[in-house]
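Researcher: Sequence of Chromatin structure-remodeling complex subunit RSC4 follows. Predict its structure.
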Amino acid sequence: MGSKRSRSEEVGEEKEAKRNYVPRYTPGKRPRSGSLPKVDYVHPLDPTEELIVDQEWTIPKLNLFIAFTLDNLVEAHRTLFKHFIKLPSRKFHPQYYYKIDQPISINEIKSRDYEYSGGETKFLLDCELIYKNCLSYNDPDSLIVKNAQQVVFFIKNEVLKVKNATKNYLVNEDVKKRLLDILDILLNVTDRKMANILEEGDGSTGDNGSNSNLDDTLKICEPFLELVDKDEYPEYEEVIEHPNSLNLVKSNLEHGYYHKIYDFVTDVNITFQNALIFNDEDTTIYSDASKLLKCFNVLIRKKFFPELESAREKGEITLEYDKIEYKKFVQEVEEEEPILSDDDETNEEYNHMEGLGNGYNRGPLARDYLLGPSRTNANSDSKTDNAEVEKPAIPLKFNILPVIKKHNIELKKEPLYFNLIRKIQVSSSRSLYEQAIRPLKGLYNDMNKITWFEYIFTDGSLSHENSDYSITLPPKQNSVSIISELAYPISEQNPAIVVVNKDRVNPIPVLNGDAFDEKKARYDIKLTEGTNRVIFSIRNNVRNVTETVKFWINVLP
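Model: Prediction complete. Tokens:
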């Protein structure tokens, strides 16, 4: 019988193994040798996926959605996205621009306009081009290629949520039960059952011939039930950003982890997408992951949602939206008023008019024809609903039409100026400036190569209607100092905060002579490359007044 080993010995061996482990993948670009494979710029990677097959879908304010989504993904997964934010350096990778015909990056995508018919598909193709270019230029088994594939999957998962915003209901007990039923079908699926599901969904029977010859005993989900063993595959952690498994998804669903339906759908998709990223295309597990991913999405689209809508119509269940998401992506489209073109044959306002003021009008000219808009007014009261007999309008001299009263023209309001914020100063970092003008002994700073900047916003220009500003910093500067001058000292009755990209910044006292000026505060902040949001806000609890200034500061590379 072998001797017992203590827990400390096991931990020590584990640490020793980690120290001796040599990473399989190395970061950075790994160019191929020889000629590069041709890049397909026209066709999508997977022509059968939902985002490509469905054509009748749009995203309101698409450009804004793209910028917001990409910024959030870059911030959340910087290790994956860092190589694709900007185009490769022409100095260090000049050969890249000779071998790749259409270079693209996250910044390039954010700068393009996609708000036109088919813009959503073009956006997806541009995102896929990041992976296609990377795969063509680098070794297929390199880390950067696998990162590029994950980048595309993450973007598509976010687009899928917004595309199905009208079906992305909150997960209540009824919805949870139906999702568990779908997951149980997936967990028990065999080759034959999966072929039948795909056949019912899109007419595909897979690559294994007739369904009757397929195996109906082996559950092909078994390799995906548990997380990948780190000891057996230590390189898995190098590649996969978000490891996942079906049992973990099921546990999260049972314990109420998922807030909305597509939170659950995304997690299942990621489980199979991880297998597609980590494994080679000629392996069985890659083939099974690809088929299971299609099978799951067919179950969601062709079985889960039709049954869910049918149950709602029968009154068996109650479905609710996330109010914030619904207002952002759904309600805005539904509340838009229909606009009739002036030459529309169904526009009854204009159909009985032959001309204006030419003596051939069939009836008396209505009061608001000349300046009346072409929008339909759904809330206008019908004349037949008014029981009172209206007196005929007195004709105006010279046929002057009183349209101004009808259109509720509002006078320009006086701006409501700030009372709490007297001045805000945005300038180059004070510490860097002091180092430049007073360098340490033995150091030399070339002042001619440094561009200093300073923007001052005073109480005469700050108001509740005019409190958003956009600033582009000179090149190679990302450190900024903000100095605020307030009407009252910062205290519990007058709290003030500065938030930089969701991070709160603490103030630094400002000296005025030999004493600290309690009405002033300095904030030294370091910005990231790209667009940064800086918010300064102060509240007077006695008067119940809040004043907020927002700066959108763009840092150049």
